[in-house]
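Homework help board

Subject: predicted structure for assignment chain

Our instructor gave us this sequence and asked us to write out the predicted structure in token form, then describe one feature. I got the tokens but I'm not sure how to describe them. Can anyone check?
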Amino acid sequence: KINDDHNHPSEKETIEVRDFRENIKQRAINETTPIPRIYDEECAKAKLSDTTTVILPSGREMNSAINKARRASTPTIPTTQLFDIPEPFTKTLH
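My token output:
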């Protein structure tokens, strides 16, 4: 039997949430601002409907994904101090 009651968010709200998440992710990748502060600033800046605000993921729910995106964009820490010096830099000028 098909039920006429719908309880999922509309397309508009889903798009707003996706855009909100993407804004936070891009800021986390491009800035060194702490993720909770980015989340709070984006919440304050966003012009979201009441319905969208209700379905937004919390900062805690987003933290793992945002940290993962930030880690993917940062270079890895070397595991050793040994490295090859390129040939032009091995000779002194005098």
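Reply (TA_rk): Your tokens look well-formed. For the description, you could write something like this. The chain has four helices and no strands. That's the kind of observation they're looking for.
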